[in-house]
Amino acid sequence: MLLAGVNFKPVRIIFVLCYNVQAVNKFFTKISLVFAGALFVFSGLFFITPAQIQAANLLEVPKIISRAEWGADEALKTWASEYPTDNQGLSINQADYIVIHHTASSQLTPDNDSSGRYTGMVKAIYRWHATNATWDDYENGTVQGFGDIGYHYLVDPNGNIYQGRAGANGVIGAHVYGHNQETIGIALLGTYGAQLGAGYVAHEITPAAQGALARLVGWLAAANGINLDAKILIDGKTQYPLVGHRDVRPTKCPGDNLWAKIPALRQQAAQDAQAYQNYLYQQSDSPEVFLLRDGLRRNYDNLQTAQQFVTNANIVNAAPFLTALFAQRAFLKYPDGTLLQAKNQPSIYLLENGQKRALAVTAEQFTQLGFVWADVVSIDPLDIALYSDGLPVKFAPANKLISDSHGRVYQTQNGRKRWVVSQALFNYLGYQWSQVAKDAAAENYLPGEVLKYKDSVLLKGQGPAVYLIEGGQKRLVTSLQLFSHLGLSWKNLIEISDQELAFYNDGPDLRYRSGTLIRQQGQSQVYLLDDVVKKPFLSAGLFLANGYNWKNILNISAAEMEQYQTGGYVGYPSGTLLRAQGGQRVFVVKAGGLEWIESAQKFLAAGYRWNQIKIIPDSEFALFYPGIAPSDLPVAPVENNTSALGELIRIGVTKIDTGQEVRITANGAFAQYDAVGNLVKNYTASQVAIIMAQSGAYAKLQAVSDDVILEALSYEDRPAWNQNLNYNRFRSTLEIKYSDYSQSFWLINQLPLEYYVAGIGEALNADHPQYQRAFAIMTRSYAEFHRQNGGKRPGEIFDLNNTSSDQVFKGYVFETIAPNLVAAAQATAGLVMKYNDQVARAVYSSDSGGTTASACSVWGGEFCGEAYGYLKGNVQDPAGTEHNQSKVAASHGVGVSCVGARRLAELNYGHEDILKYYYSGIALEKIY
C-alpha cells in the first residue's frame, strides 16, 4: 500500500552488471524496494561505462593503445596481413603459445610530454622492422624489411601496452624465425641483461611493466584457450606455453633478467587467465555482447541469448578497438553426414537434415556402420548446442526383413537398413512377406545402399535405352550390333520404373572388346581396339602383315567411335623383316623393337629369305622406330636410364627468354632429336646447333659418348672470384623445352645422378676428405629423394634447379677445378641415406648457429610427420665450431650444420658418423 502524505515518484535504478549475471537476474525477480519515501520502479537496465567497470572488483582488461592512437605510418606497411590456414584452407586465428622478447634498445626515452608513453620509441622500432631488418626466406634467400613491425604487442616501463603488428588475433608475426605461425610475440621496451656493443645493459624491470605484461599474457591466454599450466611440445622440447625468445632460437633475447622472471610471470598470468575466462564484453551503445574464445570473437544479439551458452559470466565494457583485435567467428554449419563431438564430451553426433543425431552405438558398432574415428570433428560445446536434436541413431539387428511405419520394406545389414525399392525386386531377391516384421525403431536406423539387381542383369526403364548392370553401375548398350557382339540375351532383360533405375550410378558406356577391328560408318580408316584406345593401321600391308581379315571389320556409328581415344599405331608383328626405302640395313622386328642383321651370312644363317623383306617408306620407318638409322651413317646412341652412374636426373639450368637464340656445341660428336625422339641432325666437334626459343620449339642435344662434353655458348655463369671461368659445360644431354608450370622456356641438363653429384658446387676442394664424402652422400640423397618423388615442384619439367633454393650445380667445369670432390663422389657412388627404408630428404644448412632447428618448427606441414623423424633438430655443433653470423642469419638451420660437420671431420669422425651425428636414425645403403 502507499504511505499517506508521502509524494511518490518513479525512480530508475541503474545496476552495474559486473558480477555474476545469473545472480543479478535472480535478484531482479524477487526484489521490491521502498526506501526513504520513494518507490523504486525497475523500468529497465542500462549499460555501464568503463569507469564504472573499474569500480567493480574485477580484474581489469588490459588497455591497448591502437596503431592509430600511437601514430603508425601505414605507408610503411608493405606486408599484407597473413594468417595460418588449416587443411581446408580456413584461417587459423588461435595462438598456441606466447613468446617474450626485449627490444634490445640501448636507451629508454619517453615522449616529451606528460602522457608517460613511449610512442616515439615504438615508431622507431616500427620503421626499423618495416624497412631495414633482414630475414631469411626458405625459397627466396635474404629479404630486407619485414614490411611491418614484427611483434604483436609492446609494453613500456610505465605499463602502457601498444598494438604492434597489424591484423586480428592470430596474424602471422615476424618475431621468431620458424615460430611465427600460431604464436604471439610480446616485447618489453629496453634491454634486460644482454651485451650491447662493448657493455652489458640491464634496464630496470618496473613493477608497472611487469604487472601489465602478466595481465596481457593472462588475458591473451584466456582469449586463445592457452593453458599456461600445461606443458606442450615447442621446438622439439616440452615447455610451458610462455617462453622466452632464447627458448626456441639461439639468442640472448629477452635478456638474462627478463628471462629469469618468466616463471613468475607465467604463474601470475595463469591466475589472471582464470579470472578472464568467462568475461562477456559489451560496448556501451549496443545490446550486443561477445565472448573471446579460441582466438575469435563470438557475437550474441543480447545478454539473454549469451546466457544460454555461457554460464557464470562476468560482463565488462569493451572499447570499440577490441572488436578489431579479434575476428568474428561465424557459425560454421557443417554439412549433412559430418560426425561431430563436443570437446571433452563423450557423445558423438551425426548431422542429418541440419539436425544432430546422437549415436547410441558401441565402439565396435561405430566401425561396422562404416564410420572412421579420424573423421570425427571436435568442436566447441557452444557450437554443437546450436544444432537441434534429431532421432538418436541405433544399430539395426543383423539380416532381418523389417518394415517401418510408412510400409517400406528393408533388409538390415551391418547395422543399417537397405530399402527394397519395388515388389519386382522383392520377388527377384526371393523374399517372402511372411519374413517381414514391423520394427518400431526402424526410423532410428541409418539407411544403407538400396538393394539392387545383381551383375549381368539387363535393365530397361520407361525409355528405349538398355543397360547392363556391372559392379552396381548401369552401363549403356549403345547399339544392337554391340548387344550381339557382347553375346547379351534379351531373356535377361527386366523392365523397372525410372525412379528405381535412377538408383544406379552411370558407368561408362559398354564398349567393344580389345582386339576388335572397327571402322566408322562411311570412312575407310581401320582401327584395332586396345581397351579404350583405337590404334590406326597406316597401310593395307600392315593390316595383312598382322594376319587380319577384312570381313572381320565392324562398321560403327560416329557416336560409338568417339568413345575411343586415338593412340599409337598398329606396328609390324615380331619376326617381320624390314628395310627402309632409302636405307641399306635389314632389320627384324623383335618385341616391338628392331634388331639389325649385320651381314648376309647372319641373315641366311637365321633361315631368312630375301623375298620376305618388306620395304617401307622412310617416313613410316622413322615413325615406328625413331632414333634408329636405316643406313650405315653414324648416329648418337639411344640413352640408357639405368647404369652404374645412377638414374637420369633433370636439372633446370636457366630460364630462356622467348625469342632468344640458344647455341650449343661440343668437343666431339653429338646429335639433335625432336620431341618424339626422331633424329633431326648429327653434328661433329665444334659445330654449333642453333635453336630459337619460340612457340612449339623443342630440342634435345645428346653427346654420343661420355667423353663428349656439351657447351652452352649462349649461357654465362661466371664466379665473382674468377671471371675467366664459365660454368657453361655439361655432360650427357642438354634440352630446350617450354614449361607450362613456370610459363617459360628452360635449358635443362639431363645426366646420370653420379655426374650431377660431382658437379655440385657447395663444398671446397680443400675440405677434409671425410667431410667431402659425407657431403656427396648428403647431396646424392637429397637429389634422389626429389627424383623419386616427381621433382621438388610437382608439374615442373625438371627435378631440381641449380640454385641455392635446391642445390648449387655447376656442371662439368666444376669437376675440373675440384678433383677431390669428384673423387669423394666416386668413392661413395650409389650410397644414399635411408630412414624407415625410404631415401631421406637430406636438407642441410651452412651454419645453424650452434643448435640445429626442427624441420617441423621451420617449415611445418609434411615435415611434422613421422617420415621426417631424422630432422627433429636440437643437435649441438661440436665444441670448437666457429660460427659466422651472416651465414647463421641466412640459414634455416635444419639438418646438417656444415660448419659443424667440417669440425667433426677435423675431430676424426668418419663420413657415416658425421651423417648419423646430425640425422637421427638414418642408415646408409648402396642403391646401385
UniProtKB/TrEMBL annotation:
Residues 83-255 form the N-acetylmuramoyl-L-alanine amidase domain. The chain crosses the membrane at residues 27-48. GO terms for biological process: peptidoglycan catabolic process. It comes from the Bacteria. InterPro entries: Amidase/PGRP_sf, Amidase_domain, PGRP, PGRP_domain_met/bac, SpoIID/LytB_N. GO terms for molecular function: N-acetylmuramoyl-L-alanine amidase activity; zinc ion binding. Keywords: Membrane, Transmembrane, Transmembrane helix. SMART domains: Ami_2, PGRP. Residues 62-239 form the Peptidoglycan recognition protein family domain. Belongs to the N-acetylmuramoyl-L-alanine amidase 2 family. This is Peptidoglycan recognition protein family domain-containing protein. It comes from Candidatus Portnoybacteria bacterium CG10_big_fil_rev_8_21_14_0_10_44_7.
